Amino acid sequence: MKVDIIGDVHGCYDELLELFTKLGYEWQNNTLAHPNNRIPVFVGDITDRGPKSIAMIDFVYKLVIESNAAYYVPGNHCNKVYRYFLGNKVKEQHGLETTVKEFLALSKKERKAIKDKFLELYEEAPLYLELSEVNAVIAHAGIKKEYIGQESKAVKTFVLYGDITGEKHEDGRPVRRDWAKHYTGEKWIIYGHTPVLEPRFINKTVNIDTGCVFGNKLTSFSLPEEKITQVSSKQPFVKEKFNPIT
């Protein structure tokens, strides 16, 4: 098995297509495929904040559900879009408002199609993905060694939001513990969620959310090669979005 794990896209569809081209993927029968049978894995947060969230839903649905040619695990933004599509009362802020604006601009028929696709994509997705063939676990905000194999409420919170303390910084960001510093497992943990300027390698973990939607880069991590591939963002650079974990 050979996989290319892709960091938080957040509606940056054009950059994603550029990254796929750089990785050697080609269009075949209206879907993307790799001549060496590589498999893309999305680490969550495919929507919100960026310019093309609806295109991302359609694209990832085609790859994961229709073509069975990719894997996807949800992120916290995915969870919020899911709850919005279910009709739950969700605050349209922190990026969700951009997805909602795109969604409401569609025709009634198009809205139903996109909503149905995303609901199926989310409901079919595992909370996190264990890939024993490449000795890896893909989880949106990471996962503790002792949580692997579990799906409790605590595990779900950790996987979607990170190791949060319940406190907040002055700017409203949640305070998070640096769980990766204490990771002692032998499996690779590949995650995103917290924007970093460069992929953050610590112990056998790597954060590949390099803040494409905030003007930095879109990153993939390939296994078993342990190779980083990146493309530059087309979005404006927002320096303050790149903060330390704590």
From TrEMBL:
Record-level GO cellular component terms: cytoplasm
Domain Calcineurin-like phosphoesterase: 1-196
Source superkingdom: Bacteria
InterPro entries linked to this entry: Ap4A_hydrolase, Calcineurin-like_PHP, Metallo-depent_PP-like, MPP_PrpE-like, Ser/Thr-sp_prot-phosphatase
A molecular function (GO) term: phosphatase activity
NCBIfam families for the chain: PRK13625.1
PANTHER family assigned: BIS(5'-NUCLEOSYL)-TETRAPHOSPHATASE PRPE [ASYMMETRICAL], METALLOPHOSPHOESTERASE
Protein name: Protein phosphatase/bis(5'-nucleosyl)-tetraphosphatase (Symmetrical)
Taxonomic source organism: Saliterribacillus persicus
